[in-house]
């Protein structure tokens, strides 16, 4: 059944509309039903009251003047303009007088109240019509039977009109509701179909598929932009994984094969009883440690990238943290005759994982000290930007990074030509970027204050963390 | 010294036992958490080396159980995980130190020795003395052969740690963790620079050097 329904009837908004309509129709039925009962009831009550009064009046006549007076009065009344039907029967049930032929009351036990019946009349065209009527019957003291009825067809047709109006209104409400439901559903459905198409495309392997925003900032736009954000993240991390795979193959293969040949050579030499096996082993151990350090760094980066946000975040003073890391690197600067300066705005607050941020800062400082020539300068600055973001920036007077290369040096394992001579696996800035991202911040690379010997612009690296909420 | 290794990887445990026996440490091996708990409860160990992830009972549960029973034997957690939250969980469960696999034997034996030693020095000290080197922990003054040595606060902390572990190898990572309280691996060996400054202050001009470099391991302060 559901399969043959057009798409729009299967949507959630349409179902909700149906549910709403059902509830609404039930409420309307109760309300309209009440109106019907009230009006229809009123019509019978009025008729009954009028009939009762007429009977009372007639029995009064009977009590005072006996059957003759009653007969007389009834004839008078029947030809008058009173809207009643009359019938008077004698003790044996024979008609004495009346405007109808027989009593509609079949079994009379003496206390019969109201009864419904039909009377036949002739309309102006001469055709017979049957009208609804209502009447009451009483037994008089002498045993005669008096019946008074009233034509209620007009009142009944009024009730019928009301009933028809009720049906009409009900049908209209349901039709309009259905139409509204279809309209809403179609509108919602179009949006959902768009989003669904993206999901299907991504499931089919097209990770680049994105939902289009309608630009009205409603919850669908929110959903669409959330979906797009999620896909961006997914695409980045998939790209990252692919890159790591390639990079590991490329960058770890050579140290691994170096390690292998060193060990093989040491074995051959040891078997021949010559060579310094101990030195070879020590060197091999160093190679293995380097490989492990690289693996650990890659692991830390991928973990940070796959986390929604950095774990164990606390509020802390970024100046304190910078001071600690600076203190770690200061002697290194002094040994290289690099002038080191820390400028921190006091009493700032930032929220994050202290350990990761300290490590990120250490990585930035490490690079700065590594690439700044002797006699140069490194400055670490902590300050709050006008935007409320907190920035840790390190400027150096090294060769800097040419602008076209800046996005690249953040990638894993990317090392620029002149840095190949320096130790390191090319993971430092990738980790900084991963730390920044896991805190909702970013890593910025800029020109520095100029290189010491004019060999480049120097470098300014900034870790920017969002304003603590 | 006698230690218990609770580790489900039998080959790794064997290598560990060989590595530690080189450092003169006697080892007993338990191959899962339940066996490890029983062995630890039997007692007689200076240090427990416990793997985090094992069949039957994981390392955290093992150590939590021991601590609940009032057993205060120092515990070194071993883990292949190595993230900060893992380390914090390990320390919360009652571990005293945390080492990430793979590790150097030198690192493992240095940490095991440090843990075993820590237990012996229970009382609060006001003075530490190693050979002719004296540290006044209250006045924060250091003398060698009666001559006052001027130290920066961090140098003082570094020397205090080395003096408390005199005669033992301490690794660069241990110093970074215990003195600076950083748990990451700096790309450049910044610790070496700090140690050589300290060495210049305490050894320069004296008849014999006390702060020695241990090849492949780190440093050792000897009387």
Strand content of chain B: 15-25%
Name given to the CATH architecture of the largest domain in chain B? 3-Layer(aba) Sandwich
Number of separate helices of chain A? 8
Distance between the termini of chain A: 53 Å
CATH topology of the largest domain in chain A: Heat Shock Protein 90
CATH class of the largest domain in chain B: Alpha Beta
Strand order of the largest sheet of chain B: 2-1-3-4-5
Estimated structural class of chain B: alpha/beta
End-to-end separation of chain B in angstroms reads 22 Å
What is the strand content of chain A? 15-25%
How many domain units of chain A? 3
Overview of this protein structure:
The complex is a heterodimer of chains A (469) and B (223). With 469 residues, chain A is α+β, with helices and mostly antiparallel strands. Helix content of chain A is 54%, strand content 17%. Chain A folds into three domains: 12-159, 2-Layer Sandwich (Beta-Lactamase), CATH 3.30.450; 241-306; 314-465, Histidine kinase-like ATPase, C-terminal domain (Heat Shock Protein 90), CATH 3.30.565. In chain A, strands 2-1-5-4-3 form a five-stranded antiparallel β-sheet. In chain A, strands 7-9-10-12-11 form a five-stranded mixed β-sheet, covered by helices on one side. Chain A has a two-stranded antiparallel sheet with strand order 6-8. The two termini of chain A are 53 Å apart. With 223 residues, chain B is an alpha/beta fold. Chain B folds into two domains: 2-120, Response regulator (Rossmann fold, 3-Layer(aba) Sandwich); 127-221, Orthogonal Bundle (Arc Repressor Mutant, subunit A). In chain B, 41% of the residues lie in helices and 22% in strands. Chain B has eight helices and twelve strands. In chain B, the strands form three sheets. In chain B, strands 2-1-3-4-5 form a five-stranded parallel β-sheet, sandwiched between helices. The longest helix of chain B has 16 residues, at 105-120. Chain B starts with a strand and ends with a strand. In chain B, 39% of the residues are buried. The A-B interface holds A 282, 285, 289, 292-293, 296-297, 299-300, 303, 311-312, 324, 327-329, 331-332, 335, 353, 355-356, 358-359, 362-363, 366, 369-370, 423-424, 428 and B 82-85, 88, 100, 102, 104, 154, 180, 182-188, 190, 193-194, 197, 216.
